[in-house]
Amino acid sequence: MRDIQKTVGLIADKQKKCFLSYIDEDGFPQIRAMLSPRERDGVKVFYLSTNTSSKKIGCFLKNPKASLYFVDQRFYNAVCLSGTVEVLQDEDTKKRIWRLGDKMYYSKGVNDPDYCVLKFTAEKGRRYSNFKNEDFLMEEN
Question: Using one digit for the tens of pLDDT, what is the confidence trace for 91-134?
């Protein structure tokens, strides 16, 4: 892959949803569909909103390892990023990624205790395109 930033960024930015995996309390992988990330820093750091009360939050606090998967179903281009998740509840981050319409999910607004931010930091990835897989490390970008 010539340009990780461009290739992965295009796939991630075009999707309305992504898939987040984590390890549950029994050591099994779990996958959740998520709204697309609200913000990203290159293709290494992604910010997603979620409910503090969701089961995945407790799992991330015990084991931060995760994967973030984006797929363009029209052309079946995909990228799976592997890394870690931090659960953020600071007001600055919550305000920064808050969007119009979020009150539908978090009735008390940006300060709703059931609203938090997941910061996913990728360490490596794997891209699938044209019937081929390609592994890469984030140091490459």
Answer: 999 999 999 999 999 999 999 999 999 999 999 999 999 889 99
- 41-63 burial string, b = 16+ CB within 10 Å, else e? eebbbbbbbbeeeeebbebbeee
Q: What is the pLDDT of residues 127-140, one digit of tens each?
A: 999 889 999 999 74
In total, the chain counts a number of residues equal to 141
Task: Tell me whether strands 132-137 and 45-51 are parallel, antiparallel or unpaired.
Answer: unpaired
Retrieve residue 20's tokens.
């987040």
Sequence-separated (6 or more) residues with CB below 8 Å from residue 41? none
H/E element holding 64?
none
pTM: 0.93
